[in-house]
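User: quick one, fold this
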Amino acid sequence: QVQLVESGGGSVQSGGSLRLACVASGYTISDYYMAWFRQAPGKEREGVAAMDSDGSPCYADSVKGRFTISQDNAKNTLYLQMNSLKPEDTAMYYCAADPDRGPISLGGSWHIIEEEYNYWGQGTQVTVSS
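Assistant:
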């Protein structure tokens, strides 16, 4: 049974950093497409970062240059290092996985789409104050 458990969320001031972790069980993360999403109150869930079909990272424009996605296959864990945090980064952050589908390439850009991932964690809250 595939399970994803996120941790590392918390409250920080603007400009601060956090590192989220997602421990996977029931499968090997190197065999799956992995991604991070977030959902702020009253807004739709949006893709933040993902590993593409070549195992390379791709990012939403809103976090590019500030967030870094990585994975430790030995620990079966996905990470999201978040630097230079802004109040608009406040959201519930979710880890997602799928064995067959991942980010979609359109017009030369990668799109991280919620419907492409079948497995989800419960989320970890990130709050950034100004």
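User: anything notable?
Assistant: DSSP finds no helices and 13 strands in the chain.
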